[in-house]
Amino acid sequence: MLAKNDTKFNVAVIGAGYVGLVVSACLAKLGNKVISVDNNRKKIELLKSMKIPNYEPGLENLVRENVRRRKLEFSSDLKRAVRKSDIIFIAVGTPAKENGEADLSAVERVAFGISQVLDAYKLIVEKSTVPVRTGEKVKETIRRYAKGDIEFDVASNPEFLREGRAISDFLRPDRIVIGVESKRAASLLKALYRPLKAPIVVTDINTAELIKHASNSFLATKISFINAVSMICEKTGANIEEVALGMGLDRRIGKEFLAAGIGWGGSCFPKDVDAFIHIAKKTGYNFRLLEEVRHVNIFQRRHFLERIKEELWILKGKNIAILGLAFKPNTDDLRESPALYLINELLEEEAKLRVYDPQAMNKAKKFIRNVKFCRDSYEAVKGADCMILATAWEEFKNLNFKKIKTLMRYPFVADGRNLYSSSQLGSLGFKYIGIGK
Ligand code: UGA
To answer: How is residue 96 annotated by DSSP?
Structure first.
């Protein structure tokens, strides 16, 4: 994949969270020398002993391989990392505040930290998802506090990787967006990404920052749109999967992100949609469309629960199995997972819950109380009056439903991800509800 004459760089990635770690490992794979930095010493110690904090397919191997090749190291020494690097990525968290606004204090802290140790020209690149005009603030901060008149550039290079397929998203991106203010910054970033052979969109910094929020908000809108249509399908007997297929084959619409379900979650869409609404408000624009996108998402899971209630009548004392806790398959991330909403509501109604997830059990055990954690799907459905499918893990696709029927007290499947067909389960004697069909 790598042409012989491709330039290699010394790179520092500040923030060894989810995005920072993937970016570090992938840039190392491309042949750059990468220092992954975090101020959390405990995390750095764990990483040094090859313990990856999050489940991400392929990441552990990629980290191991590149540490062995001496292309990747972990450190909490910001000064050394900055001084050794040509390009410095800022990949720290930008969590949401109460009002939806992004909390940029970690970004400011890093910008200040860099200013204190800057000794020669560096390109400082925002990787974290940040509101438009953050680049201006990063630049101001470094200029203000730097010790001397040292040249530097700031750039924006938003990340579009998805949890669960982050490495292939990084190595085979649809596009790379770089927001720059100078030719020098543009050519450094173009050279860094040349091995990926993806289209590169070069813009100014504000535009690049906006592309990220607009992209995530658009994808969330697409899902909420199909979820809204699923409501009409339920009322009319139309089938949402066929509607999505018929729409998605139009290349202007596209097939992806048209799977109706119990809604979007995770660490990105909820936070980024809220942040974008907030950014718009600050400019004087009321982004009502996005507010509705968020409402549809909340309504979707509530409505699903209502339909379960309609079937089971009284939830108190009913045994309910929940398959899938993570917000989507191939991750152990529980943040804003629709499954957690269902668990809270069902516990509120005093249902008895047995839960199972292929990867997220350890994380879930840390904060979910009053449920029985099971070894597998079959243990979870034992004696159940309802099996809720909340996350579309591959292993749930091929369950033995004949066996499940013998294990359940009432054979009722509430399929929150349209993983099964109603005719398949119906013919086995199950009561089945899906989304929009
Ligand atoms: C999302 C974006 O897809 C990435 O491009 C972006 O880089 C990332 O946020 C980020 O900002 O860091 P991610 O949160 O990992 O990635 O998850 P997605 O695969 O986009 O799924 C988000 C949610 O939408 C999940 O809850 C998923 O179940 C749901 N979804 C997705 C649907 O309900 N229907 C669909 O058709 C697709």
So the answer is: B
pLDDT at residue 54 in the model:
86
Q: CB under 6 Å to ligand 1: residues? A: 129, 159-163, 216, 219, 223, 257-259, 261, 264-266, 268-269, 327-328
Active site residue 386: no
State the number of CA atoms in the 13 A half-sphere of 376 facing the CB: 7
Q: Is 401 contained in some domain?
A: yes
Amino acid at the residue 331 = T
Number of structural domains found in the chain:
2
- In 117-218, which ranges are E strands? 122-126, 152-156, 176-179, 200-203
Q: Is the dihedral of CA 60, 64, 69, 72 positive or negative?
A: positive
Q: Residue 387: CA atoms inside 13 Å, Cβ hemisphere, count?
A: 32
Tens of pLDDT, residue by residue over 234-249, are 999 999 999 999 999 9
Q: How far apart are CA 161 and CA 174, in angstroms?
A: 10
- Boundary of a domain, candidates 185, 203, 221: 203
Inside any domain, residue 93: yes
Residue 151 pLDDT: 97
Asked if the structure places residue 78 within a domain, the reply is yes
Enclosing domain of residue 398:
248-433
Tell me the average pLDDT across 291-304. 98
Residue with tokens 């199972």: 356
Residue whose C-alpha is closest to residue 312's, from 339, 279, 336, 346: 346
* pTM, full prediction: 0.96
Mutate to test the pocket of ligand 1, among 129, 211, 223, 331 (most ligand atoms within 8 A of CB): 223
Helix (H, G, I), strand (E, B) or coil at 260: coil
Query: Is residue 65 classed as helix, strand or coil in its secondary structure?
Result: helix
Query: Are residues 376 and 291 both part of a single domain?
Result: yes
> Which amino acid does the sequence have at 372?
K
How far apart are alpha carbons 30 and 7 in whole angstroms?
10
